[in-house]
């Protein structure tokens, strides 16, 4: 199922041609349906996650999403906003608790990052972000406290929620370099203390994985100081949101970061970036995060590793050939969204 959403999500529509191309050549019988989510859904139906989208999403094998959000929706009540009422509702409704955000550096892109080339070089890490709990979904309210307007967001995690996401992270580490860094704020937060207890208990059952624990503030620093020290980072929802934007700079641009939000084999695949209203509709956004998200869709939901690899190789070829959108350009002329898509299609 395709959910372009709004903002730059709509600029990527040509990108789905790459999925069709790969599917045809690999003999995968792909049936695409499209639906509305976020701002465009609100504009057309009055709901950012309409009933029809809910029904279709539940019938799909996997979902490819563009982006949601925008300043024109900021004044709406939360349940009608593209973020809370759209994408967060979708994640919760489909129980997509495991968000995987791989961060990989392309040697040819090292100059695009504000970090030093030798710091970045060879970084290959995976952020495993819990996606359906924490402050995002905890009780929220406003109240009057002694005449002062007060806002409250509660951070809630139970043992089972922590254990199921930790299980995904341990498994990922076992398939990679067997190093797991669990990130929390256990010096201050009770949820983090439980988080650390659960991960520590599980570490005993995974003697092959080297586990360490970092406070989130320290992790932010270590990520830009020595990103190579990381293999798998496991963290809760809000910390993962913040750390993954930061890690985007390691890859040269957030426009390079795909993501998978999984519940078993079923998944929603979306770029790690937002709707970028300032550049939407201008044909300048980088479609690579969205195209690499499609590669993850083939890998995780459809179990078509060869198709996934072909898309990733095509992206790499185009990067190596020097083609750049504005966000990753260094000392050259950028190309637009459609042209970048065409380059990737021809490389396929
Ligand atoms: C992300 C985004 C979303 C999030 C927004 C759009 C609600 O920033 O996927 O990282 O905070 O999870
Ligand atoms: Mg984010």
Count of separate DSSP helical elements: 12
Instruction: Write down the overall geometry.
Output: globular
SS strand fraction: 15-25%
- Rg from C-alpha positions? 20 Å
Low-pLDDT runs: none
What is the distance, rounded to the nearest whole angstrom, between the alpha carbons of the first and last residues? 22 Å
Sheet with the most strands: spatial strand order = 1-2-11-10-3-4-9-7-8
Kindly state the percentage of residues in helix.
25-40%
Characterise this structure:
The protein is of the alpha/beta class. The chain is 39% helix and 17% strand. The chain has twelve helices and eleven strands. It has helices spanning 16-25, 38-45, 51-59, 82-93, 117-120, 159-174, 190-203, 216-225, 237-248, 288-301, 305-320, 337-347; strands spanning 2-5, 62-67, 98-104, 124-130, 140-145, 148-153, 179-184, 210-215, 232-235, 260-263, 266-269. The strands form two sheets. A nine-stranded mixed β-sheet has the order 1-2-11-10-3-4-9-7-8, with helices on both faces. It has a two-stranded antiparallel ribbon with strand order 5-6. The longest helix has 16 residues, at 159-174. The mean pLDDT is 94. It binds 3-isopropylmalic acid and magnesium ion. Magnesium ion (MG) is lined by residues 241, 245. Residues 241, 245 line the site of magnesium ion.
């Amino acid at each position: 199922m395709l959910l372009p959403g709004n903002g730059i999500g709509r600029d990527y529509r040509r990108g789905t041609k790459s999925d069709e191309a790969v599917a045809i050549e690999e003999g995968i019988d792909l049936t695409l349906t499209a639906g509305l989510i976020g701002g465009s859904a609100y504009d057309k139906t009055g709901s950012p996650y309409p009933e029809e989208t809910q029904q279709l999403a539940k019938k799909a094998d996997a979902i490819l999403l563009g982006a949601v959000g925008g300043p024109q929706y900021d004044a709406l009540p939360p349940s009608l906003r593209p973020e809370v009422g759209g994408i967060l509702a979708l994640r919760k409704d489909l129980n997509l608790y495991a968000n995987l955000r791989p961060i990989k550096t392309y040697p040819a892109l090292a100059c695009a990052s504000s970090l030093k080339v030798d710091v970045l070089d060879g970084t290959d890490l995976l952020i495993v972000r819990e996606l359906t709990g924490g402050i995002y979904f905890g009780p929220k309210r406003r109240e009057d406290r002694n005449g002062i307007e007060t806002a409250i967001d509660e951070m809630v995690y139970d043992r089972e929620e922590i254990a199921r996401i930790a299980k995904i992270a341990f498994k990922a580490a076992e398939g990679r370099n067997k190093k797991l860094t669990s990130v929390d704020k256990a010096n201050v937060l009770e949820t983090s203390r439980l988080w650390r207890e659960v991960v520590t208990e599980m570490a005993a059952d995974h003697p092959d994985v080297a586990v360490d624990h970092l406070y989130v503030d320290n992790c932010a620093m270590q990520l830009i100081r020595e990103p190579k020290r990381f293999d798998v980072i496991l963290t809760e929802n809000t910390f993962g949101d913040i750390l993954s934007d930061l890690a985007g700079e390691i890859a040269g641009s957030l426009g390079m970061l795909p993501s998978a939000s999984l519940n078993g084999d079923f998944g929603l695949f979306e770029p790690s970036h937002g709707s970028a209203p300032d550049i939407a509709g201008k044909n300048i956004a980088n479609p690579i995060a969205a195209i690499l998200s499609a590669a993850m869709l083939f890998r995780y939901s459809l179990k078509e590793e060869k198709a996934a690899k072909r898309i990733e190789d095509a992206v790499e070829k185009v990067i190596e050939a020097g083609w750049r959108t504005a966000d990753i350009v260094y000392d050259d002329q950028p190309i637009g969204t459609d042209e970048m898509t065409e380059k990737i299609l021809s490389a396929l």
